[in-house]
Design a protein that fits this description.
With 272 residues, the chain is mostly helical. It has helices at 5-21, 23-26, 58-94, 96-111, 114-125, 129-156, 159-166, 171-207, 219-225, 235-262, 264-271.
């Protein structure tokens, strides 16, 4: 199973991404088209996954549903990683007042309950994708910053970096060509795990009405809309819930596979 994790994760992710990209061509209906005469239908030939409380086709909404969550999760993770890496590299390499200020700021944000802070930010700013991304970035950048700072401190003390510094290499050259490239494997693994956490956070906020707003066809919005009818029509929750589960499974398997592939020390131990 361990050797096939990468293949399984890539197949799942490819399937989810392709269905999202091709949704306008393969969805049988408009995902927002309502038909009250067909509301709360179970799976049938006309609607393979049934319909929701407004008569909208569930299959069409599921095909479109991963687009918003995946794009928002990727955007929020990239922005938080960029901000966290910038502060972490400056803090770890230059030290001094910059290190003190960046570490203190990261400690403040990590000391606050992430979920509560995210809900508070989204609640004050209101629902919407820009506010959702801002809430996710503010609650996740500190983790990137601390890990990058630790890696920068470790690489900065390596003998080859000391030698290059003695030969006159400047800070920008050392950071761009030696320090940052050597921490890329760890950052890649961290990036995949953070994307999965962002997907869960988006689902939580959207369920509370603070994330992606209806009628956008999104899996978490579909679960939120199904709260009143899930007993009589359980497919309203099961279908989008399974989609979120498969997406998180694919992301976590990808992160584990990349950790196994990029962990040089573990590879050397396994060869002994």
């Amino acid at each position: 199973m361990r050797k096939y994790k990468l293949h399984i994760s890539m197949v799942l992710l490819a399937a989810i991404l392709l269905t999202g990209l091709l949704a306008p061509w393969i969805a049988p209906y408009d995902p927002n088209a309502t038909a009250m005469s067909e509301r709360l239908l179970g799976p049938c030939p006309a609607h393979w996954l049934g319909t929701d409380s407004l008569g909208r086709d569930m299959l069409s909404r599921v095909l479109y549903g991963g687009r918003a969550s995946i794009l928002v999760a990727l955007a929020a993770t990239v922005l938080s990683m960029a901000f966290g890496m910038l502060l972490g590299v400056i803090s770890g390499y230059f030290g001094g007042a910059a290190d003190f200020a960046a570490t203190a700021l990261a400690n403040i944000f990590q000391g606050l309950p992430g979920t509560c802070l995210m809900i508070a930010i989204a609640g004050v700013l209101g629902p919407g994708i820009p506010n959702l991304i801002l809430a996710l970035v503010l609650t996740s950048w500190a983790g990137f910053s601390r890990i990058v700072r630790t890696e920068t401190l470790r690489i900065r003390e390596e003998a080859y970096v000391e030698g290059l510094r003695a030969l006159g290499a400047g800070p920008l050259r050392l950071l761009a060509r030696h320090v940052i490239p050597n921490m890329i494997p760890n950052i890649v693994v961290l990036f995949t795990t953070r994307v999965g956490r962002c997907v869960l956070s988006i689902a939580s906020l959207s369920y509370l009405g603070l994330g992606i707003r209806p009628p956008t066809p999104d899996w978490s919005v579909m679960i939120s809309d199904a709260r009143l009818n899930y007993r009589s029509a359980p497919h309203l929750i099961i279908v989008p819930g399974m989609c979120i589960f498969l997406l998180l499974l694919a992301i976590n398997l990808l992160g584990d596979a990349l950790r196994d592939r990029l962990d040089v020390q573990s590879m050397e131990v396994n060869r002994l």
